[in-house]
Amino acid sequence: MTTLCGCGKKPVATSSNSIFVIAPYRYAGTWVFNDVSRGLYQEPFVAGIPGIIDKLAEDIPDADKGFRLLFSAQSFPGHTHTLVWKVKEAGGNWYACPQCQMEGWLCPALLKYFREAPKVIYFKAEKK
Length: 128
Prior knowledge:
Blueprint: E1 20-22, E2 25-27, E3 30-35, E4 40-44, H1 49-57, E5 68-72, E6 81-89, E7 92-97, E8 102-106, E9 120-126
Antiparallel strand pairs: 1-5, 2-3, 3-4, 5-9, 6-7, 6-9, 7-8
């Protein structure tokens, strides 16, 4: 069985941080990110999330080489977008982004940041 999202490892929230930061970049035709502290390397975004990231990153110069993506289960000053939980499926969770009018699926790697899938994820993208 091919694992696209570190799903073979038991997901565990390992930090009490309120705001998380990752640096997505393009690799092999999709958006991926690394988070060594959580055992994630070239973790791909799939199933609709790349389209949402395309929208977020369209005004960031050289976004393909990486940009900062801040996210939290709590509202924070300056957040620009939200993902609203829809349904659990295949070990992951579907979310809708009202600002982009798009939906996407987040794999179980989400649970490396949160103990359970948040009902709302607040986020913003910015240049590194």
